[in-house]
Amino acid sequence: MLGLSDDDLALRARQDSDAFAVLFDRHHGRVYSYVYHRVGNVPDAEDLTSRVFFQALRGIGSYQSRGAPFISWLYRIAHNIIVNWHRDTGRKPVEPLERAADRAFDGADVTVGSLQAEERRELRAAIGKLPLDRQMLLVWRFVEERSTAEIAREMQRTEGAVKALLHRTIVALRQELLRHRGTESRI
Amino acid sequence: MVFGFIRLGAEVEEANRVSEVVDRVIAGRDESEVTVWHPIARLLRDGLRPVEPSPEFLEALRLQLIAAADQRGAAPVEGRISTGLLIGAASLLSAAAVVAYLAHQRAHARAA
Fold first, then answer.
1. Given phi > 0 = left and psi -120 to 50 = alpha, else beta, which region is A68?
2. For A134-168, what is each residue's pLDDT tens digit?
3. Whole-angstrom Cα distance, residue A33 to residue B58?
4. Is A46's CB within 8 Å of B57's CB?
5. Is the CB of B15 less than 8 angstroms away from the CB of A160?
6. In three state form, how does the secondary structure of B4-48 look?
């Protein structure tokens, strides 16, 4: 069963719990990571990740590949659940990446070299001002370390379009940081 | 129009350049040439680290999902039984209606 493709497993998972378990084993890490960087804390990330997979289990019978990878279907479920969660709880969706950046800079396992507290605050503020699709792009590229080609497949855009979006995102971040620091910045 | 194409070409070239810088920074390759994009790419790399769920959470969720999937597999069987019962009940009702109709007809004929 481990050698089967996601689509074959999804077909089997309609009746076979082991097939669904293999899909879970393959994708839980990415789904959790995606959710975590959208909500910014472990308890909510665990709760929402659970909801994603239970909803996937309920919907697996109607899953159709349509050329996109299986994980895209999980991301869509996760995205919808998170959007509803933000709406229901009234929390700002821009907050998590700010907090994630904060934790990373404050964490003992992270090598931040010469980064100063002021730089950290500026970065968090700049990320928080980005639209959601750009925050997602940053999660996929930097957190999940996925290639531009992989992101393009999942976003169903061209690789050039993803590169252009990444470019605009980084330009926007840089401009925001420069605006705070003035011309003497090394950013 | 020509200037538009030139500008578009320059934007594509710059987007490719930024993408290459991000690739190298994420891969942790030390750079001899440092562009204006390197510091911001490094900031993002250091600020957005991968996260892992706890093994306890994963194990518990996995077991719950398998249990739910097994229960879901049992549901259609219950559904089939219910359908069979419904068909049986409908047949009995039909038969009872026919018997009642015949009894009524017979009573009517006897009265006549």
1. beta
2. 877 888 898 888 899 999 987 889 999 999 999 99
3. 13
4. yes
5. yes
6. HHHHHHHHHHHHHHHHHHHHHHHHCCCCCCCCCCHHHHHHHHHHC
- Token pair in block for residue B63: 């077991």
Quote the distance between the C-alpha of residue B80 and its chain's center: 26
The complex's ipTM works out to: 0.70
Structure tokens at A91: 């929390």
Q: Note whether A115 contacts B43, CB cutoff 8 Å.
A: yes
Both structure tokens of A60: 């697996």
Q: For each of chain B's 112 residues, which pLDDT tens digit applies?
A: 655 666 667 788 899 999 999 999 998 886 677 888 888 898 888 877 788 999 999 999 999 999 999 997 654 444 444 555 556 666 777 777 777 878 878 887 777 6
A106 CA: distance to closest CA in chain B (Å): 10
Question: Among A127, A141, A173, which would you mutate to test the B interface (most chain B Cβ atoms within 10 Å of its Cβ)?
Answer: A141
Q: Is the pTM of this model over 0.95?
A: no
What percentage of chain A's residues is helix, strand, coil (to nearest 5)?
Answer: 75, 0, 25
Interface test with A, best of B14, B24, B54, B65 (most A CBs within 10 A): B65
Chain B partners within 8 Å of A57 (Cβ): 65, 68-69, 72
Residue A45's Cβ-count burial label (10 Å; 0-12, 13-18, 19+) is: buried
DSSP 8-state symbol, A142: I
